[in-house]
Amino acid sequence: MVDVRRVKLPGVGVLHTFITEDGGKVGVIAHRSGHSDLISFADEEDGGPDASKVSLRLSEDEAHTLAELLGGTRITETLDKLDQIPGLSIDWFTVDYDDAIAGHHLGALASAGIIGVTVVAVVRGESANPAPADDFTVFPGDTLVVAGSPEKVAKVFSFYRTGARTAPSANDRLDAPPGG
Q1: Is 151 helix (H, G, I), strand (E, B) or coil?
Q2: Which residue in 36, 58, 67, 73 has the most C-beta neighbors within 10 A?
Q3: How does pLDDT run across 147-170, given as a tens digit for each residue?
Q4: Are residues 74 and 20 in the same domain?
């Protein structure tokens, strides 16, 4: 666990710093105005003549983007681990203009005969809409993040592309007895 030090800077904002494994010092000054400074520096006593200091001013949007990029690696690593669970598939479906789902609500997959699949999120532009409701309207360019068995994810993608509903099979029905 990284030890983060927080210091209030009166009239400016808050400084967060931590020491990296290799001894570097990284900080973020979150200004009250909304922008942030990403800084890297050495302590004065440790620095000597070769010490370098780097400061990068970021707008609020740029700071959020950097945070998403840095945090995104953890999300990707987590999804990669989940994708290694037998029987679980997590896949992305990018909606085209000619897809049946374009301009329509996600709808209840169960009513389309597809049970055991979840639309985890819809990514639109720079933002994600986690756990969207059945009445969420999907537009061309949106990316749907879907989780379920590989066969059922493929079935959902086919449904979203063509709009063709399938009759539930014995394997899809919740009340079906095992094996039949």
Answers
A1: helix
A2: 36
A3: 888 888 888 888 888 988 755 454
A4: yes
